[in-house]
Specification:
about 260 residues; mainly alpha; Arc Repressor Mutant, subunit A; Four Helix Bundle (Hemerythrin (Met), subunit A); 2 domains
Length: about 260
């Protein structure tokens, strides 16, 4: 399908290519169409397309070879943290299990940054949590507070990599949290966590802060799988459905390659 010139050409081209890769139009091992043809299909200039391809190559989506077609990588094996950010920003439908995988990552790192924050800046943690009891009983309020808490904990931990990892999910974190905190049980669980963490910070018990954080992160995964996951996937699929249009081919041409790869 030929796209009309978009208002933000580079953003449009990147989103379209990332979506095409994730949805299997350009499977791992295949190659992109020639630059001229792809630029026309996307409705962007060739310099804009080169800029986008360079960015996707840097992030691990593509391999650019001089004099040869641009190859599509298996991003689940060759990609970096920017791939996660790209999925969050551009994917119409998230890959299966993507959110639980993020929660498992949070389970691994959040106990460590909670411990570090209490060890290094217990006063800051106490200040941050002091007003948790006044949180309105709304999903939006809990989502905003939870993001702010975890972000500040990563900063207070003294390890900037924790903050960089979390920043990769900025915006997306709160969107998913608003769905999670629709559940009264999720809000009650987090209220208890905030109170327990405040107590740990009050007595400077970093080991206890690590333990209570690990417990609530594990519990959040169970609850997500129990009452949120199916609902969110259905909503995302509904949002991704295109509006009715005249019958036209919407797929970008894929040149033969080495075949489809599989996510590990």
């Amino acid at each position: 399908m030929r796209h009309t010139a978009p208002r933000k050409p580079a953003v449009h081209a990147e989103k379209t290519l990332v979506t095409a890769i994730l949805e299997g139009e350009f499977p791992p091992g295949s190659v992109l169409p020639a630059e001229r043809d792809l630029a026309v299909k996307l409705g962007v200039t060739r310099p804009t397309l080169r800029e986008v391809i360079g960015r996707l190559e840097r992030d691990g989506w593509l391999t650019v070879r001089h004099g040869k077609p641009t190859a599509v990588n298996d991003v689940w094996r060759s990609g970096g943290l920017n791939v996660v950010s790209g999925i969050v920003r551009h994917a119409k439908v998230l890959p299966p299990g993507f959110v639980p995988s993020l929660l498992e990552l949070r389970l691994l790192i959040s106990p460590a940054y909670a411990r570090g924050a209490v060890e290094r800046s217990a006063g800051d943690v106490r200040e941050l949590l002091a007003g948790h009891g006044d949180l309105p009983e709304t999903a939006a309020a809990f989502a905003a507070f939870d993001w702010r808490l975890h972000h500040r904990l990563t900063v207070a931990s003294g390890n900037p990599l924790f903050t960089l990892i979390l920043n990769g999910f900025a915006g997306f974190y709160e969107r998913m949290a608003r769905r999670y905190f629709r559940s009264p049980e999720a809000r009650r669980t987090s209220r208890r966590f905030y109170a327990d963490l405040l107590e740990c910070a009050g007595c400077g018990d970093a080991a206890a802060a690590e333990a209570v954080t690990r417990d609530v992160m594990a519990r959040s995964i169970e609850m997500w799988r129990g009452f949120v996951e199916g609902q969110v996937e259905a909503e995302l699929e509904t949002q991704a459905k295109p509006k009715p249009k005249p019958r036209r081919s919407s797929r970008l041409a894929v040149k033969p390659g080495k075949g489809r790869g599989r996510r590990p």
